[in-house]
Design brief:
heterodimer, A: alpha/beta, six-stranded mixed beta sheet, about 20% helix, B: alpha+beta, paralog of FGE (formylglycine-generating enzyme), three-stranded antiparallel beta sheet, two-stranded antiparallel ribbon, 9 helices, 7 strands, globular
């Protein structure tokens, strides 16, 4: 904690305030842990503005220690957990995660917790930002239809988890009772363009992931730490797709990240970004240039980055099956101009043939190994060999009967495009083909890779294609292919 | 207004409350620290929770327990607050046969005394609640409790509509929470109004350390609920039934 006694109680002069903050900052370097709890006086009173994820209440910044009144209501309600899947959540404020609370170091927080009369259960709250027994839980156990009040001084800055701590604690947390409270440092946080609230947690449902209908809490799965759902902001897809967070290129983003658990630790990662800064575990230690940051169950982190290029960023738990199979994924859509200096986008797409020979062929072309001398074949031999070679090299796209796939892979049957070529199509097989072509009046725009075959094999395939699909009576020789290859 | 209601209800007198015997048993407290096993003598218990109709009759005979007259010390402002609107819109059979809620511990106790009965002790209530359901809808009481916690029970259910146990007693779970004589016993304190004495055993890790079975979360919730109460509290889901010693 910063020694709050340095903070003035009756300050009127803003310049003086800055000087004192400077003193406080200087003091902090020597005394970075909690000092004595001599508190500055509190002036004025405000009611905290609370927000649902992913929104964050406005920046507080410089001001006196203030009495901040927080009104938070516990509501038990059935809501969507995933498409077609309902769950009876126990909530702080009607949503999961609970309302985001924002105060400033030195503030006196007067906390009012209300347990809605239609609720079934008693609840309380343990705020990790509280210095005191049970984090407030001891003073806040209330029956349905009751309100309770307690006050605490925000001694330490940082981002803190709060949660219900009524027995059985695990069940109350597993049903959605957690949220974040930010205690801004005296000097405030540096300005950014966007702040978002994202909290991970898991759900232990009686049915498997995706099983439709209302799901009950499964204590055995919770004991086994084997959740059916791991989600960001309370439900699968809560902030993905149409509900994704949105920012513009060039803007800075600060994520207030929490992990409600109840069991799992999050390996939090944003696909497509690097965290310029991370307030490790939501405290005062700042790490820079971070790819993935751990968020303990019942812990937090603050991460910042600048969105340099457009696209969709995926916020995931990089324990990756949780992200893509259990729901732990949120999205930020970044719109604006491309910046090819930073990221080019797709420059080229080619078919990759992993056999070494094909790579050699593609890369070295004319300087291939000297071909072995292979005797020329008869039409029948070429047809037989060509049929086999066709099935291995061509059929996947051009299909067994040479019909292709309309609009995607052009047909070889009665192909005006093929018959118009003086080299009988050898160049296409040898060198590949890319870009828009018209075959029998239909346009195609795709990529055919160069096929790694020797002259003899190409001659057989071409003979097969011309005779089988185009009613030609043609025998193409390996020597013809050799000549075309040289061109 | 109350008089009018009594006249209306008189047309459908509440049947005398059936009672059934709960056999003697040894009750093992949920919390290990909560003394050792307790011998519970056999007793008789109301088969169903006390209804609005029955409680209205009690109030009309004992006007000091009406919402207008009751002392705040004995019940807070929400006492019987569900009657004013619902009961004035004509006789509602449904409501008459629903369990009475929004009653304080003091009022529940006075009602039982007026019947020559008393509130069950927590050990008695918990002993009665151990009896398995005979209703085919439920395999065991835990299923009922979980459905109840998940809010899958119909709103406004009447007494006797949830399940019957092997002793012939209805709805110990699934309908309303029920007062016990020593609901504040779990607090280890004589005075549950003293918030400093709220049960340390119910918070965070200590709860599971002291519990006889940490996985018995359905029971945890019941004990936590009791711990959150005070004698003059009322609740929209809190009613009671009476017992009698044999």
């Amino acid at each position: 904690m910063k020694n709050l006694s340095y903070f003035p109680s009756t300050l009127r002069n803003f310049a003086g305030l800055l000087v004192l903050i400077f003193l406080t900052a200087a003091c902090r370097q020597e005394q970075s842990t909690q000092g004595d709890a001599t508190l500055g006086a509190v002036e004025g009173e405000v009611t905290a503005q609370l927000t649902d994820a992913p929104e964050v209440p406005p920046h507080i910044g410089l001001r006196h220690n203030t009495k901040v009144i927080v009104q938070l209501e516990v509501i038990e309600k059935t809501m969507r957990l995933s498409d077609g899947v309902d769950y009876t959540f126990w909530t702080f404020g009607g949503k999961v995660p609970g309302k985001f609370i924002r105060v400033r170091q030195g503030d006196l927080v007067e906390f009012h917790l209300h347990n809605h009369p239609d609720n079934m259960l008693p609840h309380n709250i343990d705020l990790h930002a509280v210095t005191g027994p049970g984090g407030g839980a001891e003073a806040s156990l209330i029956a349905p239809g009751k309100s309770t009040q307690f006050s605490f001084r925000a001694l330490n800055q940082g981002l803190y988890v709060y949660h219900c701590a009524t027995a059985p604690v695990g069940m109350h947390i597993a049903n959605g009772m957690y949220g974040l409270i930010l205690v801004e440092p005296l000097e405030g946080l540096p300005p950014v363009d966007h702040e978002f609230y994202v909290m991970q947690s898991e759900f232990y449902t009686s049915g498997k992931n995706g099983e439709k209908g209302h799901q009950d809490f499964d204590m055995q799965k919770a004991l086994d730490e084997n959740p059916a759902y791991v989600v960001m902001n309370g439900s699968v897809g809560a902030n993905a797709g149409a509900n994704a967070m949105t920012v513009k290129v060039g803007e800075t983003v600060r994520l207030f990240l929490g992990n409600g658990g109840p069991n799992l630790v999050s390996s939090f990662h944003v696909i497509g970004e690097i965290f310029d800064k991370v307030w490790v575990e939501g405290g005062s230690l700042i790490n820079t240039d971070v790819q993935t940051t751990l968020i303990p169950a019942g812990g937090s982190a603050i991460a910042e980055f600048k969105c340099e290029v457009p696209g969709t960023l995926h916020l995931v738990d990089h324990s990756i099956f949780r992200a893509f199979n259990k729901g732990a994924l949120a999205q930020i859509k970044v719109t604006g101009e491309d910046n090819h200096d930073i990221y080019s986008g797709k420059q080229k797409e080619e078919v990759y043939l992993p056999e070494g020979a094909s790579i050699q062929t593609i890369n070295s072309g004319k300087s291939a190994k000297p071909a072995e001398i292979i005797p020329e074949k008869s039409t029948e031999e070429r047809m037989a060999a060509g049929k086999t070679l066709y099935s291995h090299n061509c059929m996947a796209c051009h299909m067994e009967q040479g019909t292709g796939i309309a609009g995607t892979f052009p047909p070889l049957v009665n192909s005006d495009f093929l018959l118009a070529r003086k080299d009988k199509g050898a160049g296409i097989v040898l060198h590949g083909l890319q870009g828009e072509i018209t075959v029998n009046g239909v346009k195609y725009n795709n990529i055919m890779p160069a096929v790694s075959l020797n002259d003899d094999e190409v001659a057989s395939i071409l003979t097969f294609v011309h005779n089988q699909f185009n009613r030609q009576n043609t025998l193409i020789k390996a020597s013809d292919v050799g000549q075309w290859r040289e061109k | 207004m109350i008089r009018l209601l009594v006249l209306l209800l008189a047309a459908t007198p509440a049947p005398a409350q059936d009672m059934k015997v709960v056999p003697a048993a040894v009750f093992k407290p949920f919390f290990k620290g909560d003394s050792t096993a307790t011998a519970v003598k056999a007793f008789t218990m109301d088969t169903k929770a006390v209804t609005n109709a029955a409680f209205l009759k009690f109030v009309s005979n004992n006007p000091q327990w009406s919402a207008q007259n009751i002392q705040r010390l004995f019940a807070e402002a929400e006492y019987l607050s569900h009657w004013t609107s619902a009961f004035t819109e004509g006789l509602d059979h449904q409501l008459a046969n629903q369990p009475v809620v929004n009653v304080s511990w003091f009022a529940a106790r006075a009602y039982c005394q007026s019947q020559g009965k008393r509130l069950p002790s927590m050990a008695e209530w918990e002993t009665a609640a151990l009896s398995a359901p005979v209703d085919s809808r439920y395999q065991n009481t835990n299923d009922i409790i979980l459905d109840w916690y998940s809010r899958k029970m119909p709103e406004g259910a009447t007494v006797g509509s949830v399940y019957r146990n092997q002793d012939g007693i209805y709805d110990l779970f699934g309908l309303v929470w029920e007062w016990t004589e020593d609901f504040d016993r779990v607090n280890f304190s004589d005075d549950s109004r003293n918030s400093a004495e709220l049960p340390a055993g119910l918070f965070c890790g200590s709860a599971s350390i002291d519990a006889a079975d940490a996985a018995d979360y359905a029971t945890f919730v019941r004990y936590a609920f009791r711990a959150s109460l005070k004698g003059n509290y009322t609740g929209r889901k809190l009613g009671f039934r009476c017992v009698k010693s044999l």
